[in-house]
Design a protein that fits this description.
It is a single chain. The chain is mainly alpha-helical and 480 residues long. The chain has 3 domains: 94 residues, Arc Repressor Mutant, subunit A; 149 residues, Four Helix Bundle (Hemerythrin (Met), subunit A) (Up-down Bundle), CATH 1.20.120; 115 residues, Four Helix Bundle (Hemerythrin (Met), subunit A) (Up-down Bundle). The strands form 2 sheets. A 3-stranded antiparallel beta sheet has the order 1-3-2. The longest helix has 22 residues. The chain is globular, with a radius of gyration of 23 Å. About 8% of the residues have low confidence.
Length: 480
């Protein structure tokens, strides 16, 4: 597996490829990656300054405009912050795990992942994580776990209850001792939060959701203490029923289109480690409007002047929001009379590459990644077999047109996971797969045979066998 700086180097290579394709690379993005490499070489010193704006300008030989653009890009991911004392110090703001979670969460917000995708992923991820935590729970930690579970039901303001829920979620992830559970749990919580945080607390059912969640987690805590995996899975059965969650989300979208509420609830940006910024809200709003309008790639959202008036923002605020959209290829800025903000084709590459570099620096290993893959990918294979049997045709084409090699097997996995129609699961699976690369010809040969059996199971709609084959697919490295 490549190291964190290697992942950033690949990101820079991607930027060069974009330049060759006729879209000029943004110097600010290149400098942002260079600053990130500096932070890694310094040991990722959270809370410490890596230099002043002036000093970084000299170090990287760029203007103040370019340097500040790079810093704002890193701020958006929670990577750094600038000091409030007027000295212009750039300070490392968050841990590698927090940055990885934030960049992935930002992408998911921008592509507007649906409640059914969020709950579909949560339905197998959260009970699986809880079972792993139960197996590793130490008796000395039981009193604190019970206290946190009890606190979930304590009456307090809405945001306070959400914060308690987040703290409990983090505690469960921490008990697993696998840092990837912490990162993925943050991504899941961030994906859920905008759907939960509505404007009218009295009328939108938020209390019912938080009461139900508090009751669920108290039940899960006791099942964990008892080591009862069956009770844990039973407690999470309600996650499969996303009807009310979908209804609340649809109502919120209707109100947002009418201008009655924010397109993205501002409260969500107070729930992350660093305060949110106006440019994030604007980027989310533009992305949401593009998706809801059905605009195709290449369509013009509007000229810059029009958009400044439409959104009531300054040129600087608009361009910062546009840069966020460009990083994730949702839009691009085109100059000239026929220019403006142009719709692109959203890509998770930037988010995935950035997350991988951070996770590697946090000490995540292929073993950590494989533990989560064994939890997630068999369930994905099961769902594809049950609901998307036609995917077997695409899988069979891959197996018939290539020899057993790592590239073909990765295509096989990508097609299978993407067929689940769950973008949250697909994004997480992509990160995990890159953290757990294939090893050796014997491993590849065995995986190829299992892939053939998995394809047969998908074609027959046999979810149970598909899940078992996927588990064997992931375990093949050790069997080889």
């Amino acid at each position: 597996m490549e190291d964190g700086e290697g992942a950033l180097a690949r990101s820079l290579a991607s930027t060069a490829e974009v330049r060759e394709a006729g879209q000029p690379a943004k110097l600010g993005q290149v400098i942002a990656a260079a600053i990130a490499q500096d932070v890694m070489r310094m040991g990722w010193p959270v809370g410490h300054s890596i230099g002043s704006i002036t000093g970084l300008m000299r170090r990287h030989n760029v203007s103040e405009t370019i340097l500040r653009e790079a810093v704002r890009q890193l701020e958006q991911n929670g990577f750094v912050r600038t000091s409030a004392d007027g000295k212009g110090a750039v300070i490392v703001a968050s841990s590698p795990l927090a940055v990885a979670a934030q960049v992935l969460s930002t992408y998911l917000h921008l592509i507007d992942v649906k409640p059914s995708e969020i709950l579909g992923f949560a339905a197998y991820y959260t009970p699986g994580m809880s079972v792993v935590a139960s197996q590793r729970l130490q008796s000395a930690a039981v009193p604190a776990l019970r206290d946190m579970a009890f606190d979930l039901a304590t009456p307090k303001p809405w945001l306070g209850r959400v914060a308690s829920m987040r703290g409990f979620f983090r505690e469960i992830a921490s008990i697993t001792t696998n840092p990837l559970f912490l990162a993925v749990s943050e991504v899941l919580f961030e994906a859920m939060a905008p759907q939960m945080l509505h404007t009218d607390e009295a009328n939108d059912g938020r209390g019912r959701h938080i009461d139900r969640a508090a009751e669920l987690w108290r039940s899960v805590a006791e099942a964990m203490i008892a080591g009862d995996a069956g009770r844990i899975y039973t407690a999470f059965n309600w996650l499969d029923a996303a009807t009310e969650y979908e209804r609340l989300s649809a109502e919120r979208r209707r109100l947002a289109r009418a201008g009655a509420v924010h397109a993205v609830a501002p409260e969500i940006l107070t729930m992350i480690d660093e305060p949110g910024h106006k440019r994030q809200l604007l980027a989310f709003q533009i992305a949401r409007e593009i998706l809801e309008s059905g605009a195709e790639e290449g369509a013009r959202v509007g000229q810059e002047g029009e958009l400044l008036t439409r959104y009531g923002v300054s040129r600087r605020e608009f361009r910062e929001a546009a840069r966020i959209l460009e990083l994730h290829q949702i839009c691009r800025m085109r100059r000239g009379n026929a220019g403006g903000l142009i719709v692109g084709a959203a890509s998770g590459d930037y988010a995935v590459q950035t997350a991988i570099s951070c996770l590697f620096h946090a000490g995540v290993s292929s073993w950590h990644a494989r533990e989560l893959r064994r939890l997630i990918e068999p369930r994905i294979a099961e769902q594809v077999a049950k609901a998307h049997r036609a995917t077997a045709l695409d899988l069979r084409k891959i197996l018939a047109s290539a020899e057993a090699n790592a590239k073909s097997l990765e295509r096989f996995r990508t097609v299978l996971v993407s067929a689940s129609d769950n973008r949250l699961a697909t994004l997480v699976s992509e990160v995990l797969a890159r953290l757990d690369p294939p090893e050796g010809p014997a491993f590849l040969e065995r995986q190829w045979k299992i892939a053939e059996a998995l394809t047969d199971a998908v074609e027959l709609g046999d979810g149970a066998v598909a899940a078992r084959c996927m588990t064997e697919f992931l375990n093949a490295k050790h069997a080889a």
